[in-house]
Amino acid sequence: MPKQSMALQILLVVLSGCAALVYEIVWFQLLQLVIGSSAVSLGLLLAAYMGGLCLGSALFARYVPRASHPMRVYAYLELGIGLFGLVALFGIPALGHAYIAGPTSGTSGLIWRGFIAALCLVPPTILMGASFPAISRWVEAGDVSKLGLLYSANVAGAVVGCLSAGFYLLRVYDMGTATFGAAGINVAAALVAFMLARVPHKPGVETSLDAADTSVRATGATFIYIAIGISGLTALGAEVVWTRLLSLLLGATVYTFSIILAVFLIGLWGGSAAGARLAQRTADPKFALAVCQALLAISIAFAAHTIAVSLPRWPVDPWVAGSPWNSFDLDLMRCLRTILPATLLWGASFPLALAAAAAKRQDPGRLAGEVYAANTAGSIVGALGFTLLAVPLMGTRGSQQLLIWLAGAGALTALAYLLMSRRAVLFLGGAAVVLVGALGLSATISDIPWQVIAFGRRTAPNMREMDLSPSARATPLFTGEGMNASIAIAERAGQRSFYISGKSEASTTSLDMRLQRMMGHLPALFHAGPHSVLVVGFGAGVTAGSFVLYPEVQSIAICELEKLIPPASNEYFGPQNYRVLDDPRVHVVYDDARHYISTARDKFDVITTDPIHPWVKGTATLYSKEYYELVRDRLNPGGVVAQWLPVYESDADSVKTELATFFSVFPNATVWSNYQDGDGYDLVLLGRLDDSPLEVDALERRLLQPSYSKVDASLADVGFHNTLDLLSTYAGRASDLTGLLAGAQINQDLNLRLQYLAGLGLDSMSAASTYQEVLSYRRFPDGLLSGSPEKLKPLRARFGRRRRIF
């Protein structure tokens, strides 16, 4: 390889890594809109993406002759990747229509999801996987340190792609702009590669086509491939577990996931750079690889202890950060402290594996491809195994203990060459050390405190408050780590609260009970007589339970992502949700709500959608214009939809975007408010397919019917003693809020603007002012409410009050 081209080669792999990470983020977001965002769907996406990388790297040397100029091959690969990137941007949304036409549930549905994921991801990722062995062919045989350096540079590019996509391209622009930018990077890389291809490739004596033996293998290379495969398995398994746990402590915003991934990649980058230098200097890279794997066991235990014991007690209160960027700075420091040591070792393992598996006269492209393929194959097993099996069956504690044992197995596999050289005593000594070390380290792993699952970002302030004040102490009643979420149910001062992944989602406090009942009763009462109901999100089951009281309702479908939630809520919130799971009209569908609604054949009279907070990564797809269009299309004539909109943990821009997006699909929508001392707490949005007025006198007569006695009692239980109390929660409608929403951004599938806005406004503490701003546009809804003067006069008087307390 000409020395003067090394800098350009490094530039090429940096560009390639950057574009690849941008594509990965964009493609996953696009495909989640098609096949769903459940753990199973994400597992299929990961398997397809990484499977393509594995195939591309493994098959490259077999099907691309060495006579081909490496730089020319690399250029064509980059152009192909860019072309696929552009096709995916427009093709994946179009493919959604074909997907819906196929089977979408059961085993056949799972196979169909996997086929769609593979169809979209495997072709471009085969090209991505082939790019590393392609450029490796311009490295002289035996110079594995340069292969390690190229790998390190590729990971450095991935860091740039991760941060630029998460904090700039997708925050400021959209998926289209990000894709065009990545495609432009591919074209630039291809042009540089074509320029390098003008320089004739003149292999040295050791790498000449005549001298090279493409089938040659180093002694014990198989053990190295297995060891680096185990390293990939533990790396992706740990990433799954630690991302889940750190997102509890940091808040599951899109920025948090970008920071965690960036730190993981930074560690791989730094470790691979150091490993490349070590591979050049060490006389025994196999032993060095084994040491790295053994040290990983210690690093995994260190990370587990930091997450479970140290970080929850860090004196961190995000409400006093002042700026989200101050929070990001602190989040970065916490991630670096926790996972950097382990990621450095995973990064160093790859170039050491290259050096350990290398043989004289071996095709460097084949060497790089096979080591990369083994590492990626292990990564696939780790990602799927820990997402779908280890965490749900063993919990995060057991999963981390398993990671320690696997790291030990990787170390012993790398040391297996000692058996081949008749140094079995050394191997047995190493095995004893690994066994004792794994036993000791596994014993140090503890469960994540239940307070982390409950309080998330504000764990430290809450734990401190409970330490100092006996009255503030809470008792955990249930904790669980499911495939899709971690949940906790706790009781404090006679009040029960339900938490999902660090967020309070429901409770028996008066405010929460009123909101949950409003989400059910408002749409049911605005409908003339609902027969079929869809509830998105089970929570504590109170909203779903509100519908079992209506005599006309014949079926209640509940769409819930996490299987742990309904039975736990039915046990601990049974009196509040009227034992909803025991009602024969109820059936629960365990699926991503977006996926279920887009593929369901049924239509409904009422749909109430109560997803988790919009600042949670991925949830913005349940607040998008396209989602509301799907909901509208699943309503029967005269149907009503209710949408929860939190004013707390949000800022004015996020709330305005949520309102404007909902109103863009339901132009006659209305806003209803829950109150806390006269200030905003939550909003309920109602959208209807018709604009007929609600007759107040008829509503009152309806509630006075004997068959509605349970409905009336349910309303009274949360402070709505008559229709006047209930209708007084009216806070505005779309036509009256036009001035407020001027210039508000619309949250669409291709920009998911809301998750970036909400992630920045999470700690704004502006709920009261935002609510008051919305309320300032309120006026009596002529045309929406009709009735006798005796009923409307006191209602008009209520609307004239500036502040009201229920």
Describe the 3D structure:
The protein is of the alpha/beta class. Strand 2 (486-492) and strand 3 (495-500) form a beta hairpin. Helix 1 runs parallel beside helix 3, helix 2 (39-63) packs across helix 11 and helix 7 (221-250) runs parallel beside helix 9. The longest helix is centred in the middle third of the chain and has 51 residues, at 364-414. It starts with 5 loop residues before the first helix and ends in a 7-residue tail after the last helix. The model is unreliable at 204-213 (pLDDT under 50).
Please summarize what this structure is.
This protein is an alpha/beta fold and 806 residues long. The chain contains 28 helices and 14 strands. The strands form 3 sheets. Strands 7-6-5-8-9-11-10-13 form an 8-stranded mixed β-sheet, with helices on both faces.
